[in-house]
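Dissemination and training. As part of the outreach component of the grant, students in the summer workshop were shown how a complex can be specified as a set of sequence lines and then modelled as a single object. The example used during the hands-on session is reproduced here so that future cohorts can follow it. Participants entered these lines:
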Amino acid sequence: MCGIVGYLGFRKAYPIVINGLQRLEYRGYDSAGVILTDGNQVNLYKTKGKVSDLKEVVSENSIEGNLGLGHTRWATHGIPNDENSHPHVSNSGKLVIVHNGIIENYNTLKKELIARDYTFKSDTDTEVLINLIEEVQKRNNCNLEKAVQLALTNAVGAYAIAVFDVSKPEEIIVARLGSPIAIGIGANNEEFFVASDASPFIEYTKDAVYLDDEELAIIKIGEDIRVRKIQDNSEVEPNIQELKLNLEQIEKGGYDHFMLKEIHEQPNAILDTYRGRLLANQGIIKMGSVDNNIAKFLNANRIIIVACGTSWHAGLVAEYLFEDLARIPVEVEYASEFRYRNPVINKGDVVIAISQSGETADTLAAIKLAKSQGAFVFGVCNVVGSSIARETDTGAYTHAGPEIGVASTKAFTTQITVLALIALKLGNLKGELSNSQYHAYIQEMSLIPSKVEETLKINDIVENIAAIYKDAPNCLYLGRGYNFPVALEGALKLKEISYIHAEGYPAAEMKHGPIALIDESMPVVVIATKKGHYDKVVSNIQEIKSRKGKIIAVVTKGDTIVKDIADHTIEVPETVEAFTPLLTTIPLQLLSYHIAVMRNCNVDQPRNLAKSVTVE
Ligand code: M6R
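and obtained this result:
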């Protein structure tokens, strides 16, 4: 959580920092701040609220300076107010910091600093850290680089930080443990950029270094970037990568919201996910990371999937896929529970970690735990080079492109696509799927992008339904089999962006409790596609109807039975049961989107949330 941007070079820092903060606002948006210096004057602006509020605060004031640091915050320690906003400045006024993460032992450190007469303006752990750095520098009479390194060896927790000394405006020190940080390098080392991801600087440079955990970088105008290990100060050769990201990918491209753009990107995103992997003409699925570890997958006693939120829902779909198509037992775990409940992990277990951002702290910790107990860990991530992508033994990227809306959409469908490819491949190799069945699945998968495209045409129908139910205080989502996780995902989407209470249930569970909620004011979204338990779901719909519930049914194109019973039907094209989640999830994404827009909610940045959850 929290986004960091920094600039040091020959341009004015402010426009780069402020635009960069806007691109990183998905990481947190309850307060923001910026500090600028031209070597003489130092200007610090901070405010509760969004980056747009910060812009207003700055508007009439000086924006001079070629060195700037900015921060957009998701509060952990201390409420979102001006004082708790970053950047934070040390007691002497010399040292400045922006920080993403949590310093867990900040209380102990704070007490020690108070005993040495330090005072604090904010409630944050970050202000403690910058004063610790100041104290270490004073005590050791050392340069800033050394002081940061020594101070960090005393800090417990997670951080990505950028620090500078106002009296030395030609240098920034950057460090990372558990929170991402990228450094962009301009031509001839004449300028440098620092950011939580590369989006703030892609129009300026394609050369970037992603720091690894426990690394510290020293950035100085005109000099090559230097990287050191925090623990022992040893030098590390910086790995300068070429960025593949482009500006178009991180802009709204004519859509009102990133979420809507990302919903509409799904046909191409799914295509990109299986491009080069699903070779429909040859009837094969090629996935290097699976092929290279095929014995581990085929001999696995079970697969354990760890993930959070929407990625956990993709994991639940994968449970059906692996068990149904490859007959491998699967357990799907909330990463946050798995990591703390002393799970039984055996050597032959394959652990699959799913994460869009690749930075989710709980998932990362679950991976570390599984690895420490000898499991082989495979990652399914979207963000290239992310912590989870690096921490796992190997993995497959979803290639969905940047997902900026806080509500996951294309991440979900592309995660399912990757997991379906693996399940199909294993199913065939294990002899559970005959070659002809395998080829039929491959052919059908190659049609999914066009079927998603076709599904998107129901947008107007969904918008009309949204207008009818936008003020409902509650909503139930029901599905069975492969579409039970889709029901959970539909409910999560509605909750998180429109703040309507929603619950997802396996349709048959309704009679064990939730049915008591149904009356004429309760909208019930039911996924009732032709394949898979259709008759049973029809019976469940009848049960709702008898209790006067309002039924919004997602059905297979041409359905007549449910159409006669339901209040509203939304048609999706026919496909094999295993792939139905890739289609049925689309109307649910659109429904939550339109309801949120009609309720004037901030669709892309829902309250209290952040896109990447780097705290536990
Ligand atoms: O980046 P991750 O996939 O690891 O994130 C996990 C959850 O925080 C995430 O899926 C969250 O539930 C979604 N934003 C919901 O739309």
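Residues 308-311, 355-357, 360, 363, 406-408, 492, 496, 612-613 surround 5-amino-5-deoxy-1-O-phosphono-D-mannitol (CB under 6 Å). Students were then asked to discuss how this feature might be tested experimentally.
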